[in-house]
Amino acid sequence: MGTLKYGNGDDATFQMDDADLAHLAAVVTAKLRRREPFLLTCLSETTRHAIWIHESSTLVYGYDAPAAAELDRARLEAMVQDTNRPAGLAVRCEAPALRSVDALATAA
């Protein structure tokens, strides 16, 4: 399982499959290079967390596998298209460990 950390310190941590995380990282990188912020929603069986991704966002990607996952161009293109929807891009992840939702809100 890979890990996406959002914010400074351990504000929010989301776990997902390494391949899913690699695709997400590629999409985020492409969008931020173009200075195109978007809404990212992390869905689990019990929770939903929406995160506004912008060029000042602090993101850390951690992978369990030592080798990089192979990226699927069609999947990447579909994900980029989803970032342009009002609801943004939704990804499946494990329930996050949030240190403080209030801290995230005030940091944004």
Please write out the topology.
Blueprint: E1 2-6, E2 12-16, H1 18-33, E3 38-43, E4 48-53, E5 59-62, H2 73-83, E6 89-92, E7 97-98, H3 101-107
Parallel strand pairs: 3-6
Antiparallel strand pairs: 1-2, 1-5, 2-7, 3-4
Helix pairs in contact: 1-2
The residue fraction in helices comes out at 25-40%
Domain tally: 1
The radius of gyration is 13 Å
Mean pLDDT: 86
Structural category is alpha+beta
β-strand amount: 25-35%
Give the low-pLDDT segments: none
Order of helices and strands: EEHEEEHEEH
Shape: globular
How many strands appear in the DSSP assignment?
7
The DSSP helix count reads 3
End-to-end distance = 27 Å
With strands numbered from the N-terminus, the spatial order across the biggest sheet is 5-1-2-7
Largest sheet: 4 strands, antiparallel
Condensed summary:
This protein has 3 helices and 7 strands, in the order ββαβββαββα. It has 108 residues and is α+β, with helices and mostly antiparallel strands. The chain has one domain.
Describe what you observe in this structure.
The termini are far apart. This protein has one domain. The relative contact order is 0.29. With 108 residues, it is α+β, with helices and mostly antiparallel strands. It is globular and about 30 Å long. The strands form two sheets. Strands 5-1-2-7 form a four-stranded antiparallel sheet, covered by helices on one side. A three-stranded mixed sheet has the order 4-3-6. The chain is built from three helices and seven strands.
